Amino acid sequence: MASEYHIHGIELSPYSVKVRSYFRYKGIPHRWIPRSLDAEGEYQKYAKLPLVPLVVTPENEGIQDSTPIIEHVEALHPEPSIHPADPVAKFISVLLEEFGDEWGNKWMFHYRWAREADQLSGAGRIAMSMMPTADEAQFANSTAMVRERMVNRVSFVGSNPVTAPQIEDSFRDTLAILEPHFANRAYLFGQRPAFADFAMWGQLYNAWTDPTPGAIIDATAPNVLAWIHRMLWPRAEGNFEPWSSLAPTLMPLLQRQVGKLFIPWTLANAQAIASGRDEFTVELAGKTWTQKPQKYHAKSLSALRGKYTALPDKSAIDAVLQQIGCLAALRG
Description:
Elements: E1 5-9, H1 14-26, E2 30-34, H2 40-46, E3 54-56, E4 62-64, H3 66-76, H4 87-102, H5 104-114, H6 116-130, H7 136-151, H8 164-181, H9 195-208, H10 211-220, H11 222-230, H12 243-275, E5 280-284, E6 287-291, H13 295-309, H14 315-324, H15 327-331
Parallel strand pairs: 1-2
Antiparallel strand pairs: 1-3, 3-4, 5-6
Helix pairs in contact: 1-3, 1-9, 4-9, 4-12, 4-13, 5-6, 5-8, 5-9, 6-7, 8-12, 9-11, 12-13
């Protein structure tokens, strides 16, 4: 395999394209290997879980889970850094990376499997990627199987008749907040991509490829759409900005989406896991949210708290986290 990394993933996986975008930005030699029945040998050899992305390193080590993959590779290839030097901006990027992965996935997954047009589009593209040489009958059968399986899984991300309007409102509000934020900057934290860009982008790029959310982005958020295209092949176009210049347009996202929705949701989810409940209900911005708990997200919250605890000087970031409504949650 020489010195290149292998990335096993699919275009319709926000976490797969997140990792691919990162490797492209860093200029790290890699091969993108679309997951299919014809490329199972290496995948089965190194994958511990039946998930993508899987990265196989030049040292023949298999790594899964997009955030640990990026953190592992970033330690080996620190330049150009994806972390702003400004300590407040750096941790806010870490927080938004978590938000993108865990809350943003609700937007993508819900929209992909909530309506017939999106179901057919998503299932058909997944079926085609897995069986690119299938005949018409095989393709139709595979599409139907994917559609049935995935539509029945929407509850896993919390999508149900009660929460669906909340998920869609969150998606639209996020676009409305990000649109002016991207008016004069190429990326979330300035003129080069940060940790948060890759996670947020993976979800919004995948949503854009689906009929319903794609139409919403096209019609309402041209600056966001330009960023979505830019992140396919990101590059440094300047420097990161200090938190003081980012705050006016990023604080609404942090307060309305992270502080009022994501943080109370992830706390309630972790409490449900800890107490062994098979369902939990929480009030998010005055609306009732009910779903089955998600085990991975409890681990993810613990990791985020660990990153906060490890900060050597918390004085500046604590003031911002207090404004957002996240400080108590991160202190645990």
